[in-house]
Amino acid sequence: MLDICLLGLRIRVVCQGRGTVDAELRGVYGFFDCGVGVRAEIYAGCCFERAKLLLRVQVMPSKMLSTAYESLSSLLEAGVPLIRSLKTVTAGLRGREKAGFLSVTTAIEKGTPLSEAMAGRGKVFSQLEIMIVGAAEASGNLAESFTLLGKWHEFSRRIRRRLWSGLMLPIFVIHAVAFVVPLPALIIGGFDFGAYFRTASRVLAVPYLIAAVIIGIIVLTPQTGIARRMLDRISLRIPALGRGIYYVALSRYCWVFHMTCKAGMPMTECADMALKVVGNAVVVELFRPTLASVKAGNAFSEGLNSKLPPEFLEPWRIAEETGKLDEVSERLAVRNGEKAEFWFREFAIWFPRVVYLILMIVLAIIVIRQFMSVYIGALSA
């Protein structure tokens, strides 16, 4: 009996034949389902041509599309047919992602192209994914495109996780402090739990109101126009966080440009698609002239704004001259992503400290006020 991790799925392999399976597995096919014993054939190393196995699969649920795309890429590179690959990957998904992949698999079995099948599940697959898969279908680079999409989703997940790591502890501390602030008055003035919870609610109302206003401004502001540019400009000026947002925008542009290039899309569509996913109107304006430059038949780099970092401009220009723009854009995406993670990490370190300082000041003021009220009451008595 062997426990192995294959393509992100945790499976338990029970051999029902002679000998053992070679450690270097080169591929697998068969439909795996949770808790169901199914026959499959695993292609082993040079020791055996085929080894008959009974697989009892225990799928570790994951909602991450990055894992699904990486698994699809590995299966397709191993020569597994697309439909069988989709069924294998679907078994490891849950919820909306699983429903989306099931729907795509059913549509493909009826003869629908993969990109059209994905377009019918807009809540699971973004327009970027649909366009890249469509271009990859035409060029025959599906496996490589799935690898790139997996990297893209993994990058997005890391950035979100880094941001939340800087927010979760302050949120917890604020809620804890909200129930600590009323304690002096509760102890001095008598145990009135109704007043205690009302005071705690009023304390929590302030950060909730601030958060609601910020979220409302972000959500309700149009995606284009002066208001969006003003909001994005302000976000870039937030210490540490602004630098992270800036480098994320550069990395997103490079990642999408690289993926669309590798998928075989025309240069104008690569530039246009990359602009749509930058996520910051100020940074978009730095890249917008490139689209006009390409449409006019000029070099892509002629449209790059001089306000972009020199370590971004020079490699891009040299890559365009040498014909290695797809490789350099990937390196720039990784490099700027690392810079973004660094600044988000700095934000995650300093933001809680700022929150703690503010809370300490507020608590000190409350303690002094309570002490003065008790002291003045004692003097008057």
Distance between the termini: 82 Å
Instruction: State Rg.
Output: 28 Å
Give the tally of β-strands: 5
Fraction in helix: 55-70%
Give the strand content.
5-15%
Which of globular, elongated, flat, extended, rod-shaped describes the shape? elongated
Structural class based on helices, strands and sheet pairing: alpha+beta
Number of domains: 3
Count of discrete alpha- or pi-helical segments spanning 4 or more residues: 14
Oligomer: single chain
How do the helices and strands follow one another from N- to C-terminus? EEEEEHHHHHHHHHHHHHH
Low-pLDDT windows of residues: 1-63
Average residue pLDDT: 75
- Main β sheet profile: 5 strands, antiparallel
What does this structure look like?
By secondary structure, the chain is α+β, with helices and mostly antiparallel strands. It folds into 3 domains: 56 residues, no CATH class; 75 residues, Type II secretion system (T2SS), domain F (Receptor-associated Protein), CATH 1.20.81; 242 residues, no CATH class. It has a 5-stranded antiparallel beta sheet with strand order 1-2-5-4-3. A hairpin with a 2-residue loop joins strand 1 and strand 2. The protein is elongated.
